Amino acid sequence: GLSYQWLSSSNNTSWTPISGATNINYNTSQLTNTYYRCIVTCNSVSDTSSSVFITTNSFINCYCTSNPTSAAGSDIGNLAVASLNNGVAGAATNNPASTGTYTDYTSLPPTALTQGASYPLAITQINSAGFTVNFATVHIDFDHDGIFDPVTETFAIGASNAAAGGNIINGNIAIPFTALTGQTRMRVKLQAGGSATQSPCGT
Is the dihedral of CA 183, 184, 186, 187 positive or negative? Predict the structure, then answer.
């Protein structure tokens, strides 16, 4: 004989019934921090639960995981774009520093890029042994939705080659006028046997 009605509030004072939220459990997604509570009724007698405050993760914390599976082979020795020049590449082959899988550089100061501008970008590949061809891709979350869009937020930079200097992969990234301002996330991926369609996620 129990019935339920969930309510939501932005301030824990003014409450709005949530349409269709009439089960014992309520599952939803939200874009802002929200309070929730439930009115439980039994034989026309109602009581209201305590409220619970659900905070919302910043989009910065919502990206898919990148999980390279091998520390052997190729690695990103250096990345240069705008004011960012990160890493000391060293030797292209037989480089003992080529042991990275996924490296998190979000502690670095943000690099300022301007809407409507295009920037040259250079990715230097290093190898733990001999040279292998790799494909470089850059992903930037321009709309701050926590997703690297495979079409509008992905740049196929190009492939390395075994010629002298061929381990430096040069390309350009263009910042759209519609890009939101403020901090966002950039992911750079180097993949053996990769292609222009490689995903920012997975292995």
Answer: positive
H or E stretch covering 16? strand 16-17
Question: Which of 157, 148, 185, 199 minimizes the C-alpha distance to 60?
Answer: 185
Please give the structure tokens belonging to residue 102.
């996924």
Both structure tokens of 90: 């060293």
**d(Cα 198, Cα 40) in Å, to the nearest integer?**
50
Of the candidates 79, 80, 77, 78, the one whose C-alpha atom is nearest the C-alpha of residue 96 is 77
The answer to pTM > 0.90 is no
C-alpha span between 94 and 127 (Å, rounded): 6
Give me 61's structure tokens: 């914390």
pLDDT digits (tens, 9 = 90+) for 110-169: 999 999 999 999 999 999 999 999 999 999 999 999 999 999 999 999 999 999 999 999
Give the tens place of pLDDT for each residue, 170-180.
Answer: 999 999 999 99
